[in-house]
Structure formats: C-alpha cells, structure tokens
C-alpha cells in the first residue's frame, strides 16, 4: 500500500480546525487533526509544505517508522508547531490502519480496558451562584465530574468575556464558548492576590451547594509561582478536588516538587508539554498524578500510548487535554487511547455539536465520540469511527483568531 495524497485542510465551522487527509492507492482515506489554536496556519504549512512531500509513495502502515522519519529525520524536532503537524499525520495513519484491518483503533492498541472513558466538562460563572448552577445543569445531564472556573472574582477579568457570559446567562441564552476568540488578541487583567483569596472560598461554596458526590476540578492555567501554588493546593485540601491543573507554567515544572511537598491535592499538568522527553522528569519523580498532554500536540496516538506506558509504573494516570480547540477527529483519537490504556484517569470533554456552530460542525463531521451518562465511547467501526465531509469543510474558510493575552495591573504580560 502507498500514500498517494496528503493534505492539511483548514476549516472554520464555528472555530478553526486543521484536518489532515491521507489517501492510499488502495482507495482508503484516513483523517487526522493538526489544529494548533491561534497558530493554525503554521501547523497546516508544516504539514503541506514540509511533511507531505516526504510521505508520498510511503507505506502508510509503517506508522512507527514514518513517525520516526518525520520526527528525528527532520533534525529540527519538537515544539508545538512541528509536533502538532506530526500528530495530525500520525492520527490519520492510525485511521488508515484501522480501516485496512477492519478494526476500531482501540482494538489495535490492545483492546478495551473499560466500557467507557469517564469525562469532565467545563463550568464557569461570573458569580459562585452561576458556577454552581452551571455545574448542576451538567450533573442533571448525567456528568459526574466538572471543572469549575470562577470568571470574575478570580481576578480573571476578561471584561468582554465576563460581560458576554453575564448578559447571556441573564437573558437565559446558552453560554458563549468560554474561550474568547478574537481577530486580534483580547487583553484581560489578572492579579494573584484576589485570585488566591477567592478560589478557596469559591470551592467552599461549591462543596456546600453541590455536595460530596460530584468530582470537582480547577485549572490554574499556569498562572502561579510554585510557592503560590503550594499554598493554594494546601488550602484546597478540605474540598477534595479530583485535580488541580497546571498550577505552574511548564517552564517551572521543577517547582512541582514544592507543591507536592506542601499538599496531597492531586496535580494534573502537561497540556503545554509537546514532546515525550519533557514528560519524563515529572513522571519518574512522581511530581504529578495525571499527565495532561494533548494527543494532538505531543505526537499523536503513537506518542500517547508510549506516554501512558511511561506513566503506568509510577502510578500516574492519563488525563489528556481535549479542549474546544480540538476538532471532533482529535476528540475521537483521544478516546480511542483512553479506552485502551490500563492507567486511564479522566477525559476532558467538549461536545462541539452542543455549542455555538453546532449545525456547521454536524455538516462537516459524521460520527466520532458518543456519551452514555458520564462516560465517553467511540463507534466500533474500522478506524477512528469518524468521517469528514470535505466539501462541507471547504465551505468554511479560515478566520483569523487569537487566544487572549493576560496582563497584570501594571501592564506586564502574564501567562494566560
Ligand atoms: C484546558 C485548557 C484550554 C486551553 C486551550 C488553549 O484545560 O482545556 O487549559 O482551555 O486554554 O487549549 O488553546
Ligand atoms: Mg488547562
């Protein structure tokens, strides 16, 4: 079998996705996801201009070999752009392998370890009451795990975003997507002191309101120093978080040791770790409980299964990043891995078809992740179990979009 065509297609059915399509001389088509939020065109160019020429004529079933050729063989390896492009190719190759074998990808990864992948969803609110209401709505829909962010009193004043959510909620409309996507970066202000004061009070309120059964998570989004994060993790202990996410930026991952020494609040980190070597230290030193790499940024299914194997002997579980910026193809690839690794922990979940742009998403994607109560699953079809309507995808051209930028009160830039 030979690869005859490969292309990254940038589409915007509500938000930008980079879809990778690989075709074979035997008539098979595989789909992958190379979306890099806010830098979509760079990932697409890496695929189309640099990776595709080296793939034409190659055997698509030699996945590990092609992965090594594109990664090591490029000499310049790693980083979010190159590894997102590589991930998109890798996932499309696994889709082809599944279609050729007549088996779902999870079967080729060793078969199901579980009936479904426990999921968590995003709730947030300008006030604790709004956040609790949002969490209750999810619980009524059958979810057991909710990540709760406090939009305003946490000091995270993306003013437009906060006003937008408040206006939508008071008008009884669905919440807009939680991530501001603007054609130039939206600027928000954030200060650590009000945030650190507000978060424990916020979780105290949520536990009282929501009870002990629901699993609560919180994403610090890389904004604290190790010392600040150690204090927060300790203060949050009475509220038994499922995990506290990205307490420090990846540049300060050595500071995780200080957080571990201070507290037993479980730690999740890794969405900004974009290669396997970066994960080794934190895992073998047991500095985290959940590894949160993104299957779509860290090297695809090939890298994710190796990372899960690395984590297993250290009692670290997977908690793969799967935010709104992942396309339904990326979500499907992630859940295939969840089902097949023994040390799966929890899966972030964003059902695109229930949010803004739902009709466009349904037009472009057919199949993919399904949900039963709190658990995610994928179709027992050959490959990933999701197809892309290419004509529909091409109808929605790329729209420039940036992530927000955070500034401190004095105007200095801070991690968003
Ligand atoms: C998460 C993440 C996302 C990121 C986004 C950036 O935990 O889901 O932190 O919300 O902000 O993926 O593109
Ligand atoms: Mg996060």
Based on the model shown, name its key terms.
globular, binds D-gluconic acid, alpha/beta, Enolase-like, domain 1, 416 residues, TIM Barrel, 2 domains
Mind explaining what this structure looks like?
With 416 residues, this protein is α/β, with parallel strands linked by helices. It folds into 2 domains: 3-103, Enolase-like, N-terminal domain (Enolase-like, domain 1); 117-382, Alpha-Beta Barrel (TIM Barrel). The chain is 38% helix and 18% strand. It has 14 helices and 18 strands. The strands form 4 sheets. Strands 4, 5, 7, 8, 9, 10, 11, 12, 14 and 15 form a 10-stranded mixed beta sheet that branches. Strand 2 (17-24) and strand 3 (29-33) form a beta hairpin. Helix 2 packs antiparallel against helix 3. The longest helix has 22 residues, at 80-101. The radius of gyration is 21 Å and the shape is globular. The N and C termini lie far apart (45 Å). The model is unreliable at 153-163 and 173-180 (pLDDT under 50). The chain binds D-gluconic acid (GCO) and magnesium ion (MG).
Low-confidence stretches: 153-163, 173-180
Number of β-strand runs: 18
Approximate strand percentage = 15-25%
Q: Quote the CATH topology of the largest domain.
A: TIM Barrel
* Radius of gyration from CA coordinates: 21 Å
Overall SS class? alpha/beta
Secondary structure: helix percent = 25-40%
CATH architecture field of the largest domain = Alpha-Beta Barrel
Shape: globular
User: What's the domain count?
Assistant: 2
Q: What bound compounds does this protein have?
A: D-gluconic acid, magnesium ion
Number of helices: 14
Distance between the termini: 45 Å
**What is the CATH class name of the largest domain?**
Alpha Beta
Main sheet? 10 strands, mixed
Q: Give the overall pLDDT as a whole number.
A: 93
């Amino acid at each position: 079998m030979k690869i005859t065509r490969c292309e990254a297609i940038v589409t915007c059915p509500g938000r930008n996705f980079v879809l990778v399509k690989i075709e074979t001389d035997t008539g098979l088509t595989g789909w992958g996801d190379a979306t890099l939020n806010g830098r979509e065109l760079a990932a697409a160019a890496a695929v189309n201009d640099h990776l595709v020429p080296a793939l034409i004529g190659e055997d698509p079933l030699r996945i590990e070999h092609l992965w090594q050729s594109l990664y090591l063989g490029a000499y310049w390896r790693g980083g979010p752009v190159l590894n997102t492009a590589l991930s998109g190719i890798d996932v499309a190759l696994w889709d082809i392998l599944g279609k050729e074998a007549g088996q779902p990808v999870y079967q080729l990864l060793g078969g199901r370890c579980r009936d479904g992948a426990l999921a968590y969803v995003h709730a947030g609110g300008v006030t604790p009451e709004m956040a609790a209401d949002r969490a209750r709505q999810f619980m009524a829909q059958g979810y057991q795990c909710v990540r709760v962010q406090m939009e305003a009193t946490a000091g995270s004043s993306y003013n437009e975003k906060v006003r937008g959510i408040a206006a939508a909620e008071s008008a009884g409309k669905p919440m807009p997507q939680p991530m501001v996507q603007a054609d130039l970066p939206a600027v928000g202000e954030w200060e650590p002191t009000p945030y650190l004061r507000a978060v424990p009070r916020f979780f105290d309120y949520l536990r009282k309101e929501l009870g002990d059964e629901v699993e609560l998570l919180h994403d610090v989004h890389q904004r604290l120093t190790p010392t600040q994060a150690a204090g927060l993790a300790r203060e949050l202990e009475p509220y038994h978080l499922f995990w506290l996410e990205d307490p420090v930026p990846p540049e300060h991952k050595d500071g995780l040791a200080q957080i571990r020494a201070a507290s037993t609040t479980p730690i999740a980190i890794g969405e900004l770790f974009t290669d396997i070597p970066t994960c080794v230290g934190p895992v073998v030193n047991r500095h985290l409980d959940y590894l949160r790499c993104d299957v779509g940024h860290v090297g695809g299914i090939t890298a994710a299964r190796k990372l899960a194997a690395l984590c297993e002997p250290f009692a670290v579980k997977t908690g793969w990043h799967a935010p709104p910026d992942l396309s339904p193809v990326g979500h499907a690839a992630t859940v295939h891995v969840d089902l097949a690794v023994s040390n799966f922990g929890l899966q972030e979940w964003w059902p695109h078809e229930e949010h803004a742009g739902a009709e466009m998403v349904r037009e472009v994607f057919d199949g993919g992740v399904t949900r039963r109560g709190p658990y995610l699953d994928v179709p027992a079809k050959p490959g990933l179990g999701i197809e892309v309507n290419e004509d529909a995808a091409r109808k929605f051209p790329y729209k420039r979009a940036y992530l927000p930028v955070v500034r401190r009160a004095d105007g200095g830039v801070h991690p968003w």
